[in-house]
Amino acid sequence: METAGGKRVPVDGDTEIRGVLRDKRVIGSDFEVMGNMEPNGTFQALAVYENPLFVYKGGQRLYVTYWCDVCAIRTRTPGVCWCCQEETELDLRDRKD
User: Fold this and answer.
1) Most buried residue, 2, 7, 14, 82, by CB count within 10 Å?
2) Is 68 domain-assigned?
3) Structural domain contains residue 41
4) pTM to 2 decimal places
5) What does the DSSP 8-state code read for residue 93?
6) Structural domain includes residue 50
7) Among residues of the chain, what percentage have pLDDT more than 70?
């Protein structure tokens, strides 16, 4: 990721966070990750259950979530729905759900 000051910093996190960081639908977005800078220079994101990922769109800070229209199941990482096995859609939210 690139900081507001233009510095490039590697970001890591749990498996779910890594899934979001590799999601082509958010790559290149104005993106915010909450976490801590590690001594090795890597920014470690908070755990996905703490909702540490945001996209700024239209002047709004939106939580990154994923939604299955078929089963009405929300997740915090991209992939297939655990119920119907259909691909989940990116669903940016203005509040925690």
Assistant:
1) 14
2) yes
3) yes
4) 0.87
5) B
6) yes
7) 98
Amino acid at 86: E
In this predicted structure, the answer to whether residue 6 has a pLDDT above a threshold of 90 is: no
Name the pLDDT band for 5 (thresholds 50, 70, 90).
Answer: confident
How many domains is the chain built from? 1
What's the CA dihedral at 67, 85, 24, 30 to 10 degrees? 20
Is 6 inside a domain boundary?
no
| 4-13, 54-63, 69-78: least confidently modelled range | 4-13
CA dist., res. 80 & res. 73, Å (int)? 11
Structural domain of 17: 11-90
- Dihedral in degrees, nearest 10, Cα atoms 79, 12, 94, 88: 0
